[in-house]
User: What shape does this take?
Amino acid sequence: GAGVSQSPSNKVTEKGKDVELRCDPISGHTALYWYRQRLGQGLEFLIYFQGNSAPDKSGLPSDRFSAERTGESVSTLTIQRTQQEDSAVYLCASSLAFHTATFGSGTRLTVV
Amino acid sequence: AQSVAQPEDQVNVAEGNPLTVKCTYSVSGNPYLFWYVQYPNRGLQFLLKYITGDNLVKGSYGFEAEFNKSQTSFHLKKPSALVSDSALYFCAVRDGDYGQNFVFGPGTRLSVLP
Assistant: This one.
């Protein structure tokens, strides 16, 4: 597509529930990134996919967080047993290798 | 490992005056440097980048940045600030030799006062 698409744009969930966030990258982009941005804060790296290489999961904050990517296509970020501190905007970006990353509009997650 | 520092949480400037938002970086290989801007309730928008070539890079909305290898800096500048430039600005670095991910600075909030 023309840009990076994230869904849903907003998600309110109850504490303890699982949530799944989706990212559709720009077609042909080999790299895909997930970041978390808490209110008024900077970007916190979560995970990075590059082609068929093993993903860099070093930023995932706990084992409740996981992400998958099918080839060079869609990625899903799953948060299990959500906690209130998981409330944030989750941003996805994609890029060609060594090129500019293009960001989606994000998913605003609120855990109540 | 890569890292980015933005030493100022907040920068205030009067409309029409020049603005500078500072960024310093650390990377093992060749630095690929980027500036992004975030307006309220919006995603990040790309402003400009340095990969190679001329140290002075020009980007969107009249912004420019100067790559200084000896000082490991990539400060964002604009000759004449607009109120509409008020936003959150992020500097990012990528290791050009090792292909690692983008590492972002903590962000600098720019307020341009009328």
Observations:
- Chain A touches chain B at residues 31, 33, 35, 41-43, 45, 48, 50, 56, 91, 93, 97-98, 100-106 (CB under 8 Å).
